[in-house]
Design goal:
two-stranded antiparallel ribbon; flat; single chain; 3-stranded antiparallel β-sheet; 6 helices; alpha+beta; 26% strand
Length: 199
């Protein structure tokens, strides 16, 4: 696992305000690597100097594997909820897919399927407006494709993580179809083609 290491310098005044006697006290800091922690290291590290190092993860394999499975599921969920862009009569608009968004979109699509010519809806950070039946169908199709692609990808990545027998194998698994071995990549492709998904 990656860790950040740096020296934190704190100045201690052993004198007075008028006659300062400043001592620099250095403390070693080790943080698990993340983008947020690296930003902290850049601002806190003495002279801005820090290192990123690989350290063995001594936790039991099952614990590391469980964490990997949880992380993959969380990334999948965040990616789905983040939504997708769809071309509408207003241009390219973004639509998030929080649970309430998915319910609202299903309700709108149901109204269209029952004969409504349009339905009030809104893109992210935009005012509600009447969307045409064609627009709502396009949004719903794109949302379905987006969700299906990511749930299928996540399923295959979770299978790969469950097959892993070493932490080195787990470390190679990222939230991307690029890390799938040929048999899983082929299976995923077959499912998406059968479902008409090309994302």
């Amino acid at each position: 696992m990656k860790v950040l290491k740096y020296q934190l310098c704190t100045e201690v005044n052993h004198g007075t305000k008028d006659k300062p006697d400043i001592e620099q006290v250095f403390s070693a800091v080790t943080l698990g690597w993340s983008e947020a922690n690296e930003k902290i290291a850049k601002t806190e590290a003495y002279n801005g100097e820090y290192t990123i190092e690989e350290e063995p993860d001594n936790r039991p394999f099952e614990e590391i594997q469980t964490e990997k499975l949880s992380n993959l599921s969380e990334i999948c969920n965040q990616t789905i909820v983040a939504g997708m862009d769809v071309e509408t009569t207003e241009g390219i608009e973004h639509f998030s897919l929080e649970e309430t968004d998915q319910i609202n979109l299903t309700t709108a699509l149901s109204a269209i399927e029952q004969g409504a010519k349009g339905y009030p809806y809104h893109a992210d950070k935009k005012l509600c407006r009447m969307f045409t039946a064609v627009e709502l169908k396009a949004i719903a199709e794109k949302a379905t494709a987006h969700k299906l692609y990511h749930t299928t990808l996540c399923n295959h990545l979770l299978i790969l993580a469950r097959r892993a027998t070493t932490t080195a194998e787990l470390d190679k698994i990222t939230y991307s179809a690029d890390c799938l071995p040929p048999n899983l990549a082929e299976n995923m492709k077959k499912i998406l083609v059968a479902a008409g998904i090309t994302e």
